[in-house]
Amino acid sequence: METLAVFALVMLSISAPSGPISRSPATAAFVGQTVSQTPGGGAAPTANPASHKVTLTWKASVPASKAPGDAIIGYIVYRSTQSHDPHPLPINPSRVTGTTYVDANVEAGKTYYYVTRAVSANGKLSAPSNETEAKIPRGNSH
């Protein structure tokens, strides 16, 4: 497999109806270099557990070359409940063409691990990004 680009998720935001619940630090990797970025934190409001969602944002991948077949045409987002899962499942039904994806299918009290892979015009996948973690808060019972 040919490596197209190396990139990483750089921001994770867990939201509820009343707004963001938390943001986690993530690491961004660019060809041969690691850069750490820590987004600002957020308050943890009371929320309906069924309404949680995880918003993933990453920096665009850099194509392996300027050849038209190497152009990045989208991303596949993978999720697992196990850290460093060698076979995480893709969660987006079609390729993401931007650099943001919202996972609205998360459960309160669970921890999820995400990676992304770039897709080139010739159909090749990049190596997986660095992993980022999302801990979904438990809902309050009334």
Which SSEs are present, and which pair or pack?
Blueprint: E1 9-16, E2 19-24, E3 26-30, E4 33-37, E5 53-58, E6 72-80, E7 89-90, E8 100-103, E9 111-120, E10 132-135
Antiparallel strand pairs: 1-2, 1-5, 3-4, 5-8, 6-7, 6-9, 9-10
Report, as a whole number of angstroms, the end-to-end distance.
52 Å
Strand numbers in spatial order across the main sheet: 2-1-5-8
The profile of the biggest β sheet is:
4 strands, antiparallel
Order of helices and strands: EEEEEEEEEE
Question: What's the quaternary structure here?
Answer: single chain
CATH homologous superfamily label: Immunoglobulins
Amount of beta strand: 35-45%
CATH second-level architecture: Sandwich
What fold name goes in the CATH topology slot? Immunoglobulin-like
Estimated radius of gyration: 16 Å
Structural class: mainly beta
Instruction: Give the beta-strand count.
Output: 10
Q: Estimate the global geometry from the Cα principal axes.
A: elongated
Low-confidence stretches: 1-10, 16-50
Q: Give the proportion of residues in helices.
A: under 10%
Task: Record keyword descriptors for this entry.
single chain; 142 residues; mainly beta; Immunoglobulin-like; 4-stranded antiparallel β-sheet
Describe the structure.
With 142 residues, the protein is mainly β. The protein has a single domain (9-135), classed as Immunoglobulin-like, CATH 2.60.40. Helices cover 0% and strands 42% of the residues. The chain is built from no helices and ten strands.
Brief overview:
The chain is mainly β and 142 residues long. It has strands at residues 9-16, 19-24, 26-30, 33-37, 53-58, 72-80, 89-90, 100-103, 111-120, 132-135.
